[in-house]
């Protein structure tokens, strides 16, 4: 499935929270998200359950400070549980796991700088792939990291953002969802 957000109606979650602390909307040909500082992560799901899948998107921070986290979700649920493939506009990335028993997502791959990430408001092309317990993260056509974790086997793809210091605005353009297989990868 490809989403270019040229029509205002979408299967992706769009909302404004009470108090207008966060939102997701279709705006100017993209899925756009915003969240005030220190509110935690907010997400929009595609409303398509899958197990082994890949999600790709062009992602660009349009407003906010450089320490924010935003990116893609794999095998997520409505409560925000799942795998977070995040970057920051300061040039860092991480893979996190969110679960109901922890108030903050836990690192599977800690925040690390990468020369392959564009900084500031330059767009980044991200890809997250989840096959069995194998999780892969790519940016701008380059491999960033891989981890293994058997916790989640099915869920929804999505997008996510979280802000520190200032309100964060991020555009998610040309989202592509597809089934994924990786030759030679088996579950544990």
Tally of separate helices: 0
CATH homologous superfamily classification: Exo-inulinase, domain 1
**Average of the residue pLDDT scores:** 93
CATH class, named: Mainly Beta
Rg value = 15 Å
Provide the CATH topology.
Answer: Jelly Rolls
CATH architecture: Sandwich
Which H/E pattern describes the elements?
EEEEEEEEEEEEEEE
Query: Beta-strand level of the residues, as a percent range?
Result: over 45%
| Count of individual domains | 1
Shape: globular
The termini sit apart by 29 Å
What descriptive keywords fit this protein?
0% helix, 188 residues, 9-stranded antiparallel beta sheet, 54% strand, 6-stranded antiparallel beta sheet, mainly beta
Short description:
The chain is mainly β and 188 residues long.
Could you outline the blueprint of secondary structure elements for this entry?
Blueprint: E1 2-3, E2 15-16, E3 22-27, E4 30-35, E5 41-45, E6 53-63, E7 69-76, E8 82-87, E9 92-98, E10 106-113, E11 124-131, E12 134-139, E13 142-148, E14 156-162, E15 168-179
Antiparallel strand pairs: 1-15, 2-3, 3-4, 4-15, 5-14, 6-11, 6-15, 7-8, 7-14, 8-9, 9-10, 11-12, 12-13
Q: Would you mind describing this structure in some detail?
A:
The chain is mainly β and 188 residues long. It has strands at residues 2-3, 15-16, 22-27, 30-35, 41-45, 53-63, 69-76, 82-87, 92-98, 106-113, 124-131, 134-139, 142-148, 156-162, 168-179. Strands 1, 2, 3, 4, 6, 11, 12, 13 and 15 form a nine-stranded antiparallel beta sheet that branches. Strands 5-14-7-8-9-10 form a six-stranded antiparallel beta sheet, with no helix packed on it. It is globular. The chain starts with a strand and ends in a 9-residue tail after the last strand.
């Amino acid at each position: 499935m490809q989403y270019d957000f040229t029509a205002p109606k979408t299967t992706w979650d769009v909302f404004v929270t009470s108090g207008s602390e966060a939102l997701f909307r279709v705006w100017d040909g993209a899925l756009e998200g915003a969240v005030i500082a220190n509110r935690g992560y907010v997400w929009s799901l595609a409303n398509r359950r899958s197990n082994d899948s890949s999600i790709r998107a062009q992602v660009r921070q349009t407003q906010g400070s450089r320490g924010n986290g935003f990116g893609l979700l794999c095998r997520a649920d409505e409560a925000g549980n799942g795998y977070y493939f995040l970057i920051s506009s300061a040039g860092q990335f991480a893979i996190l796991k969110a679960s109901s028993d922890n108030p903050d997502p836990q690192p599977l791959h800690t925040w690390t700088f990468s020369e392959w990430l564009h900084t500031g408001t330059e767009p980044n092309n991200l890809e997250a792939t989840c096959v069995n317990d194998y999780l892969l993260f790519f940016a701008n056509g380059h491999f960033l990291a891989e981890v293994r974790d058997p916790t989640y086997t099915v869920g929804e793809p999505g997008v996510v953002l979280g802000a520190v210091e200032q309100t964060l605005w991020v555009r998610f353009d040309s989202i592509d969802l597809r089934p994924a297989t990786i030759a030679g990868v088996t579950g544990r």
